[in-house]
Amino acid sequence: MKKQKIPNKKVIALAGNPNVGKSTVFNALTGMHQHTGNWTGKTVDSAEGRFLYKEREYVLVDLPGTYSLCSHSEEEENAGKFLQSHRYDAVIVVCDAVCLERNLNLVLQAMEITGNIIVCINLLDEAKKKGIEIDTEKLEKRLGVPTVGICARTKQGFPELLAAVQKMSADKKAPIFPVKYSESTEKAIEILCDALRKNTNLPLNERYMALRLLTEPKKNAEEFKEIFGDDKLKDRDISDALERAYRVCGGRENIEDDIPESIVKTAENAVDGVVKTNQNKKHDFDRKLDKLFTSKLTGIPIMLLLLLLIFWITAVGANYPSELLQRASGFLTQKLMLLLTNAGVSVWLREMLVNGMFKVLCWVISVMLPPMAIFFPLFTLLEDFGYLPRVAFNLDHSFRKCGTCGKQALTMCMGFGCNAVGVTGCRIIDSPREKLIAVITNCLVPCNGRFPSLISIITIFFAAGSFGICRSVFTAALLTLVIVFSVLLTFVSSRILSKTLLRGVPSSFTLEMPPYRKPQVLKVIVRSIFDRTLFVLGRAAAVAAPAGIIIWLAANVTVHGESLLSAFSGALDPFAKLIGLDGVILTAFILGFPANETVVPIMIMAYTATGTLTDFDSLLGLKDILVCNGWTYTTAVCFILFSLMHWPCSTTLLTIKKETQHLFGARRFLYFPDSDGIYCVFHCKTHIRNILFLSSSDRISGFSSLYSNCFERYFTLFILSSRSNFPRSAKSNTSA
Fold first, then answer.
1. How far is CA 651 from CA 357, 372, 483, in A?
2. What is the pTM of this model?
3. Each residue's pLDDT tens digit, 33-51
4. CATH tag, 10-168
5. Distance CA 275, CA 35 (A)
6. C-alpha–C-alpha distance, residues 516 and 23, integer Å
7. 298 CB contacts (<8 Å, ≥6 apart)?
8. Over the stretch 534-572, which tens digit does the pLDDT of each residue have?
């Protein structure tokens, strides 16, 4: 059978507001499984997929979700540039059936660029639940472009959508101008259009270019130059026409007010009589849940209870699989050592490869995989249900008080799984200043790499008096308090940065609450394991393997009868004891830079002087090792504090470098958490012993004094140590 020759490919752009199911449409058409989340701002970069329809291949480009083509954010800029480039044959604009009027704003703007528009109204099932009916035929007549109603989850309406794509992509259509502006604005547009028509090589239609130049002349001229290689403002006729246009309409401010007002009015007229709402069917369930989840009285407590539940399930559920993986790794270690021995590999090489690289790699997998395999699905279920945007709503006020954007709450939540993922998620923040604040402070929330260490220390030192389920609940409660403390650190640090090094006005934050949806449990579990758990684990393993060699060399290479590990920890011991730790702990944190999961096993290796990572049979055995080496409750508290406030891991740091495009700035992020970590544990070590023996009333004042003293002096230390050599771009944006 001969292979059929596929005709020329057709490129289809997929645009739409955030959280309209655009990525779901993309996945359904292409068969790809791009991660879709039930919160705004998930797709920042464009994705590309392919599908066949009637023996023709189509390339589908998923553009970032945007509310407008006016470039106010990275998403809007990327989407606008692609649509202006005309490197496509048709555009599918996905709209939410529940809030169609608002979504039509983007449709109307896109129609001014190209006439090859298909309006795809998604979430008809959600609209039906809320008593909303849409007459797509009437809307199609009013807009003059194909309009199709679909339900992406069930693929309802997809045959009609594909037929519209085939028909629309066959020929190039002229742009449609459904929006009529005020008389003065139309005169200003015509003046500028006359000047633009003199240019015979216009990259876009003159009306759209005139609108863009009238609103933001310098910015859009640079954008046109970047895309088409032609600076329109350098043309004397165009610059003179621009001045005349402003005089006709009374100034640029009048145009900037008139254009969005006219678009909104046109969208309002378009849906008049098209959208019908059954007043008897109200979405009372969503409203009742919102009153519960976003209330000032119940919002924060419910959030803390859910956090406690997730950590308890993670802590309890990860124990058994982690133990099985440790046993399996021990078995594989023996077999691998035997294999290399039989192969004639030298002793030092097989020791380095097996007891160094392989054992560290196995430890990272056994410690990191079980909690991530539990935490990520639970976290994703909350996301799929639509709860995480409510968390952002609850924390928005606090972040705005700190001089930052409420979107930082979303990136902070991502950081609980992996700080590197949280840093990547900072792309959804529009302001460069606020984005940098979010990137800097993201490492203050513990990731899955730090959870095992925190759980172990909390359990053996603070939950040792309880047994069974009480022990696990108490551990989860204490861990939740630690997490709350890390969130408070994020607030305080963001506030200080916004008032000192990164001054500026917090930008506006429009948070669209998605509807509550029944989570697709099986799909969520599979997606979170493959898209998140294995992805993060793979990156951790990539840096843990070479780190294992370095750790083994440090423990086994001796100078004057003393290993490099012992010598290094001994050199750090005076300073470490000053801040409530010891040289071994500080060395473990330094050598654990590639992967935080290795901090505890490095400590055990140094304390027991085995020269290789040592497994412990139980938490009781670990406690005996630590207590025998001078650990106290004060040391445990200082260890927990320093775990929260120390340098990010290598994976996170490389991600910071990639996102900020500034290597020296990335190096600076090593110093930021250290200054607060060192100072906090120093004061903790100095005061905690006295506080523990005070009366209840005195303890409160003692803790209050410790808190204020610690943060007051830390901020001074941080500002003095970090004032110079920050990325200059961070200081550039000082307005919303």
1. 18, 16, 21
2. 0.63
3. 454 444 444 444 567 888 8
4. 3.40.50.300
5. 31
6. 17
7. 292
8. 766 776 677 677 777 887 888 888 888 788 888 888 888
